[in-house]
Amino acid sequence: MRDPLTYGGHLRAVLGLGLPLIGGNLAQFAITLTDAVMLGWYDVEALAGEVLGGMVIFVLFLFGSGLALAVMPLVAEAEAAEDATRVRRVTRMGLWASVGFAVACFPVFVFARPLLLLLGQAPGVAELAAQYMQIAGFAIVFSLLGMVLKSYLSALERTAIVLWGTVAAAVINAVANYVLIFGNWGAPELGIRGAAMASFVAQMVMFLALLVYVLVRANQHALFVRLWRPDWAALALVARLGLPIGLTILAETSLFAASSVMMGWLGAAALAAHGIALQLSSATFMIHLGLSSAATVRAGRAVGRRDGTDLRRGARVVTAVSMAVALLAVVVFLAVPGWLVGLFLDPSDPQRGEVLAVGVVLMAAAALFQLVDAAQVIALGLLRGVQDTKVPMLMAVVAYWVIGVPVSYGLGFPAGLGGVGVWLGLAIGLAVAAGLLMWRFWARAMQAAVPAP
């Protein structure tokens, strides 16, 4: 067995793997961010509709992405153990599972308007959100298949294409938004439907770019030969690891979705301000998510080599990098909140002042949970790397839904704190999750050479 890497070696490895993943995540996020910014310039009601509809799509996508994310540690471990057959089997069945989940989501998009009305949303906002979901939602099949290919390539530490494919999709989305939302260059003015069309095309382009790359440059495992043949054992393995990952992600993202629903009860301006603050917080989260994926791959490879020293050193390094990024975000959020929120709003919009006033206060609340949000996502990445997903899922459910959602509601409404109370509840839920998940990983990592799957 090779000598363990030094801390400097781990830092170089984490950054070499993580920076393209961070760039890819930020470019992916830029697709949603561009929709929000341009719709904010177009109309605050349209922005509120996109916030609501986009959140539902995002929750479903992240739940389904658990199946794709399961491919990453499985491929990383198999590649470190030089088991090419296992690499091919789990990746193929990751594609199968993702298509099945995407198709199961289609009824949510078809019946979006009545479902949103049942959640107590205003009819106007529900109608706009439904228009967005009934177009952009069906791109989930491309998004999830793309996630499987990203996981496969990331586990092989071939992440440059993940970055550049996503950047190309983000550029296409921005141009299409400019044309279709506002009716520029002779196109019809489609508003929120134009944003949905642009997002659909962007997701399709990103998947096709990854597919072509795998077929031409990274097909050493012959992933698509006899793809039609089922492999029930590999499918069960992906599902057994991936469903708890998906449920863990669902527990967190549905916490934020529940906060969007609660903010909708406070009116369109409050929901728009919430959406802006959430978009800005999500931008920093994309950095931590890239580092979390790097942590998964590095931990998975340590498991494949049975190298506990590398596992622990790598975990310390990736956690330290993530904490440094979180501290920088805290400084920025507290220093220039008004300027950040104002980027999303048309200076001539009559609701700008109201949205800006609420948004500035929410940015201070968002700064509170930067460190704990970073800690919980890094811990989850490390735990996925060692294929520990069931207990973390239960911890996440307790932290986010037994604690986070009730506290958000209690502080926001019975306590009368409004939007600030909702966001303080988010911070408390994330803090509990961070503590439990970090304890789980380090308790196992320090007790054995490599934690048992």
Automatic annotation (TrEMBL):
Cellular component aspect of the GO annotation: plasma membrane
Location within or outside the cell: Cell inner membrane
Entry keyword set: Antiport, Cell membrane, Ion transport, Membrane, Transmembrane, Transmembrane helix, Transport
Membrane-spanning ranges: 12-31, 51-72, 93-112, 132-149, 161-183, 195-216, 237-258, 264-297, 317-336, 356-382, 394-414, 420-439
GO biological process, one term: monoatomic ion transport
Domain of life: Bacteria
PANTHER family given in the database record: FMN_FAD EXPORTER YEEO-RELATED, MULTIDRUG RESISTANCE PROTEIN NORM-RELATED
Protein name: Multidrug-efflux transporter
Species lineage: Bacteria, Pseudomonadati, Pseudomonadota, Alphaproteobacteria, Rhodobacterales
